[in-house]
Every structure is written in structure tokens, then in C-alpha cells.
Design a protein that fits this description.
The two termini are 35 Å apart. With 233 residues, the protein is mainly alpha-helical.
Length: 233
Amino acid sequence: MGERRHFRKLLAAYHDTVRNAVRLKNKIKAKFLQNGITCSGETVYLTEYRQKWRQQLPQAAALLVIIDSLWEQLHQIQQTEETILSEAKPQAKKYPEIKLLDEIPGLGFINAATIVAILETLHRFADKKKIWMYAGLGIDKDSSGGKIYAEKLGREYNRLLKYTAKQAALAVLKSDNVFSRAYLEMTLRKGIASHLAELTIARDILSTAWAMWKRGEQFNPEIDKNVKTDAKV
């Protein structure tokens, strides 16, 4: 279990660096926008285009120092991402369930590895609803006198698992697969709000991962017959 705990910390560190990189990218673009320079796309972050973008800024010493500092910080964080990833991939080979879950359309290695690292062992969870609750995607029901008067997402949960499940949902929606088709069914045909549909897809991804891991089964494209399209808060 010690190795798994170390692996989990490694994946958590990776996600921290990714979030830091996003914050720095936002700051870099903000500096250009503040000076009336539109910078859509990714080239403003790339080393080979740096001088071209730098020349478009007002040549004020303080501003140039700030933008150079932001670029350098981003470069260092991206190097840290690569270092952590190069360490995580060999360790992931110890857990064959990661390779199994990576078969889920659009999930990707990082999301699959993070789900496995956080859940650690399926013996912790009696059913998929327990995993939903642990991920902050389950429903807490307030009741009185046998009547339910409020339903809301649980407030006690693993934040990294919730983040990963929601990121996984966004990732799978970028391609044509069982989950993206279920999402379209909910939003276009049933009129369900997009954020509720995304929560449902996040739950379905965790359910699929849990079932595959528990049974040792590969992803089955026919699973779309079992994907639920009933969205709840």
C-alpha cells in the first residue's frame, strides 16, 4: 500500500503542476490583452515564438521583465510536468488496471492512472454509488418524516477524484464515442442542462471504470446500451 500511496502523491503533484501551468498561461495572455494585443492560440507560450510576441509589447523595461519572468516560470513548470510524467509511467506498469481503464474512449493515461491511484483498491467500495459519493458526484438526500425535501451533491469528497472525473468527462466529449453520444441525447433530445449532463457523464465514466476494474473486463463498445441518460443535480 506504501507504493500505491507514493504513486497517488506523484499523480497529485502532476495535477498541481498542470493547474499552475494553466494559471501562468492565463497571466501571460492577460499581459498581452492589457496592452491591446490579441493572442489566441498557443504560440504565445512557445519558446520559438517568444521574441516575435515580445516585440509586439510596449518596450517598457518593467513590462518586459514581467513577461520574461512568466515565460521562464512556465518553462520550468512544464519541465516539472515532464519529469513527473516520466516517473509515473514506469510505476504505472505495476498496476495493470491502469492499462485496462485507458481503453475507455477519450479517458487517457493520466485520468486512468489518477482514478486507480485514488481508489487504491475496489474493496473500499461496495458499489458504484459509494464511488460517486467519494468523488463528490453522489446525491445527498435530506429527508424528514419519510419525505425527501432536498437533494444536493455531497460536500465531503476527494477533491482530486472529482476534478479528475470532471476533466475525464470533458475529454471524452471531444470525440465520437458512447459517452459523447449519451451527452448529446441528454442535452439535445431531452433538454437537460449541459452542466447536469456533464455530471452524469462523469458518473458514467467512474461506473465504467469501476466495472471494468472489478471484473477485469476490457471496454465493450456495446456498453452504450447500459449508459444511463437520466441526469440529476
